[in-house]
Amino acid sequence: MSISAYAAFSKSDKIRFKSSSGGLFSEFAKYIYYSGGYVVGAAFDKDFKSISHIITDNPDELDRLTGSKYLQSKFSIHKEIKEILENGKTVLCCGTPCQIAGLKSYLKSDYENLITIDFICHGTPIQKVWKKYLEWQEGLHKSSVISVNFRSKENGWSNYLLLLLFTNGKKYAQTSDKDPYMQLFLSDMCLNRNCYNCQFKGKNRQSDITLGDFWGIDNIAPDLNDSEGISFLSINTQKGKELLNNIKSNIFLTEVDEEIAFSYNVAAIKSASQPDCYNNFIKDLEAMPFNKLARKYIRKSPIKKRLKKYKLIKIGIKIRDNLLKR
Predict the structure, then answer these.
(1) Residues 216, 264: contact at Cβ < 8 Å?
(2) Cα 231-182-68 angle, rounded to 5 deg
(3) pLDDT tier at 322 (50, 70, 90 boundaries)?
(4) CA–CA distance, 170 with 147 (Å, rounded to integer)
(5) What percent of the chain stands above pLDDT 70?
(6) Which of 204, 150, 141, 185 is nearest to 298 (CA)?
């Protein structure tokens, strides 16, 4: 089937607030849970220094799977997924495009009871960078982390915060343009090497559904943006369409032009650019504490240039749209 693209968000304020964008994954997962199926997604490990994919049929686990997690997940439950599928149970699996491709390669069969969701992936950071960052934060706050939220909406969807809570009651909250870990991530400095030549970009996805933030919503359907989060939703297969039909009563949904929608998500179609100093960063990562590493390699200008470029693109699209209306 041809791709259908939408702007969408959950009608539940609670679900939407907990999510990174519009809460669509939670709505899909809820339907699968209450239909007797299993959900696969990434959850923080006990110490919050890493994440792993888990499989669960317990709706109480949904909060662990909700929200963006900007680090690489350990995905080692292919065998368990296959066993559940062969027992006739439905499995909804969410992962990066490469993880979905890896699962399908392992299964070697198109199970009708497997539904896959991938998301628009900027790239996955090197695990050691996050580990060093979190240890640095725990040293500064003299306490262990008990909660991590990469996309807290306390300041709204477009001005999200990285939020850390500690056992001693302290709280760290910082915007992505000021937090050193997010600065390294958004400037493409700390990604895994394969992410600079990703083989899974483009609109022809292996997943049934693709999710992401709908950052261009102000130029496509500005009335929808209430600063609480809007999801970009791409339906890639008939299975994806059927799942969407089952949750339509729980979401607001507006169909959009998929070419224009994808144009606002460059990460969907283009790999990140490897910085010239990447190899030096890798060497220093082994020897330097996080604060020194960040001071040496954070480059404010690439982020500012990216934001400036994004603003210019928005202006250009507005001009084009106004011309087309004449």
Answers:
(1) yes
(2) 35
(3) low
(4) 11
(5) 91
(6) 185
Residue type, 324: L
145-152 and 51-56 beta bridge pairing: unpaired
Q: How far apart, in Å, are the Cα atoms of 262 and each of 8, 101, 120?
A: 15, 20, 10
Alpha-carbon distance of 65 to 102, in angstroms, equals 20
For residue 136, give both structure tokens. Answer: 């640095």
Which residue is it, tokens 């390669």?
105
**What is the Cα–Cα distance from 141 to 164, expressed in whole angstroms?**
10
Residue found under tokens 């020194």: 292
- Distance from C-alpha of 198 to C-alpha of 208, rounded to nearest angstrom: 19
**What gap in Å lies between CA 164 and CA 155, rounded to an integer?**
15
| Residue whose C-alpha is closest to residue 114's, from 136, 140, 132, 88 | 88
H-helix or E-strand containing 253?
strand 251-256
Nearest to 242 by CA among 35, 13, 9: 35
Tens of pLDDT, residue by residue over 7-34, are 999 999 999 999 999 999 999 999 999 9
Amino acid identity, position 251 = I
Q: Classify 126 in phi/psi space as left (phi over 0), alpha (psi -120 to 50) or beta.
A: beta
Radius of gyration of the chain (CA): 20
**How far is 78 from 296, CA to CA, in rounded Å?**
39
Tell me the three state secondary structure of residue 325.
helix
Q: Which residues contact 10 (CB under 8 A, 6 or more apart)?
A: 16, 19, 22, 23, 24, 26, 27, 250, 251
Q: Quick: pLDDT tens for 196-245.
A: 999 999 888 899 999 999 988 988 888 888 989 999 999 999 999 999 99
The model's pLDDT over 62-104, given as tens digits with 9 standing for 90+, comes to: 999 999 999 999 999 999 999 999 999 999 999 999 999 999 9
